[in-house]
Amino acid sequence: MAEPTIGTRLQRRFVVFTSDSGFVAELADVAPQPWVGQAVTDLDELGEWNDVLLYRFILMDLDEEAAFDPLEIMRTLRMEYQINVPVFCFGGDEELQNDMRLARADRFFSRREMLRMLPEFCERYAWGE
After folding, report:
1. Cα angle 11-16-21, degrees, rounded to a multiple of 5
2. Alpha-carbon distance 18 to 41, whole Å?
3. Whole-prediction pTM value?
4. Which domain holds residue 42?
5. Which is higher by pLDDT, 14 or 127?
6. For residue 68, what is the domain's CATH number?
């Protein structure tokens, strides 16, 4: 297993759980340089639990239940991996949002609010280089 380098650990990256490529493009437009978002629909695409720690935060599209199970991802992150990477959700109905709160998702936004908040999240989690 290759160990991450210090440079890899310092990269400013975040995860976006969505299959909506249009929204991913909108996020890329508002993300400050050098931040990079990685769009996925499966937690395994990120690698092992310790690979998830290389990302500063996670955005999760709750309108994408056909593409992935947001509750299962939260349970895996919090209960199996036992990691506390911030998870910011957008979309979804009230019932799903309540279930995600119980699964320990951090905050909830509309799609438009997420676009407005992304630069603030990037600033808040910009430790390192």
Report:
1. 115
2. 6
3. 0.92
4. 9-125
5. 14
6. 3.40.50.2300
Dist CA 28 CA 94 (whole Å): 27
Burial class (CB in 10 A: 0-12, 13-18, 19+), 58: buried
Residue 68 within a domain: yes
Q: Taking the C-alpha atoms of 119, 55, 35 and 117 in order, what is their torsion angle to the nearest 10 degrees?
A: -10
Question: Number of folded domains in the chain?
Answer: 1
Q: Give the chain's mean pLDDT.
A: 93
Tell me how far CA of residue 79 lies from CA of 26, 84, 103, in angstroms. Answer: 32, 10, 9
Per-residue pLDDT, averaged over 6-31, amounts to 92
Separation CA 112–CA 107 (nearest Å): 14
DSSP state of 87: E
Quick: pLDDT tens for 32-67.
Answer: 999 999 999 999 999 999 999 999 999 999 999 899
